[in-house]
Amino acid sequence: MVNMEWFIKQAVVCSKTGTAFAIASNLRNLNLILWYRGDYFLQKGNTLSVTSFGLIVNGKTRKLQLLHVFSFSHSLWVSLTQNLDCPGNTYPMIRHCPKRPGCLFKHCPYGAMLPHQ
Q1: What is the pTM of this model?
Q2: Which of 22, 110, 114, 115 has its CA 20 to 30 A from that of 71?
Q3: DSSP label of 113
């Protein structure tokens, strides 16, 4: 299998489903929307390699399960980002999240904690 290298341009998460979406672009400027779940949150600037050994992010093997791959559509991406209810998608430097109690991620992809009690 030939290695395919992809560059992550944008990424968002869905706290209600515990899944994430990312825009990936290759050297030929083919853009895809990845819908996935796993132990790692893809971030803008990451390099994703598809190899016979699995998915490798920035040179490290990661357990990512691709649920679906869509051809990039600006309107689809806008629809996704507007309908995902995670404060970190808008404010990635979030420290305390009021949505954490109902979030399906064991660890917040943005590093937020529960709000102060």
Answers
A1: 0.90
A2: 110
A3: B
Domains of the chain with CATH codes: 4-86 (2.40.50.650)
- CA atoms within 13 Å, Cβ hemisphere of 10: 14
Cα angle, residue 104 at apex, residues 76 and 74 outer, rounded to 5° = 10
Buried b (16+ CB within 10 A) or exposed e, 93-114: ebeebebbeebebeebbbebee
Confidence of residue 116 (pLDDT cuts 50, 70, 90): low
Average pLDDT of the chain, as a whole number: 90
- For residue 45, count other CB atoms closer than 10 A to its CB: 10
Tell the burial category of 23 from Cβ atoms under 10 Å away from its Cβ (0-12, 13-18, 19+).
buried
Residue 4: pLDDT band (50, 70, 90) is: confident
